[in-house]
Amino acid sequence: QKEVEQNSGPLSVPEGAIASLNCTYSDRGSQSFFWYRQYSGKSPELIMFIYSNGDKEDGRFTAQLNKASQYVSLLIRDSQPSDSATYLCAVRDNYGQNFVFGPGTRLSVLP
Amino acid sequence: DGGITQSPKYLFRKEGQNVTLSCEQNLNHDAMYWYRQDPGQGLRLIYYSQIVNDFQKGDIAEGYSVSREKKESFPLTVTSAQKNPTAFYLCASSKGARETQYFGPGTRLLVL
To answer: Which residue stretches of chain A have pLDDT < 70?
Structure first.
C-alpha cells in the first residue's frame, strides 16, 4: 500500500515568517510530486509540482525534493494570512496513472 | 472560460436512493477522475477514465458507478449500496494519464 504522510497540524506561523510543510512517501518508485492548497469548503488548487531532486522556486513558494530520503517539502516565504489553508501533498509513481494524496497539513498564518 | 464544472453544489440523498453527480470539462482533457474527501482525510480515488467509453475502479469503488460516453462528461452515481455516502466529492481532469490534475469546485453530499 503506497502511503503519503503529512503532519496534520495545525501549523501556526506569524505573518511574514517562513512556513515549512513536509511530506514523506513510502514508494521509492515515485517520480512526480505535487502540492495543492485547499481553502475550507473549497476544492484543491495546484500550487506547484516537482520532478527532480533539489529545489524549485515559484514566487514565494519553494518545493524541495529529496528522493533518497523520500521526502518533499513546501516552503512559503513571507507568509500572509491569505495563505491559511490546508496543503495537500500528492505523489505519482512512474508506472501508475494515479495520484496518492496525503491527509494534508493545516496552516494558520497569524496577523 | 475553460474549466471543470460540478453540479449540484449540495445534494441530499434519502435512504435507498441513487443520486448522480455531474462533472463536465471543456479543457479537452482526456482523463477524468472522481475522488471522495472525508473531514480531516486526504482524497481517495473512486473511479477514473483515461478515454471515452473506458473507466477503471479506484481504491473505493464499491457502491459507486460511472459512465464516460463523452469526452467532456464523467457523471458519478452514488448507489443505495454505498452505506456511508456523506462526503465532499471532487471531480478532476488531466490532459493525459500522467499529467497534472485540476479539480472542479466539488459537490457536498448529505444524507437525510
So the answer is: 1, 94-97
Dihedrals phi, psi of B21, to nearest 5 degrees: -100, 135
| Cα–Cα distances in angstroms (integers) from residue B20 to residues A35, B3, B78, in the given order | 30, 20, 6
A12-41 residues touching B, CB cutoff 8 A? 32, 34, 36
* Half-sphere exposure (Cβ direction) of B34: Cα atoms closer than 13 Å: 30
The alpha carbon of residue B111 is apart from the nearest alpha carbon of chain A, in Å, by 18
Query: How would you label B55-64 residue by residue, b for 16+ Cβ within 10 Å and e otherwise?
Result: beebeebeeb
Nearest CB to A104; choose among B35, B42, B102? B42
pLDDT tens digits for range B32-56: 999 999 987 889 999 999 999 999 9
Of A34, A42, A101, which has the smallest distance from its Cβ to B42's Cβ?
A101
In whole angstroms, give the CA distance from residue A36 to residue B100.
11
A98/B104 touch (CB, cutoff 8 Å), yes or no:
no
How much is the pLDDT for B15? 84
SS3 content of chain B, % helix, strand, coil (to 5): 0, 50, 50
What number of residues does chain B have? 112
Model pLDDT, residue A29: 85
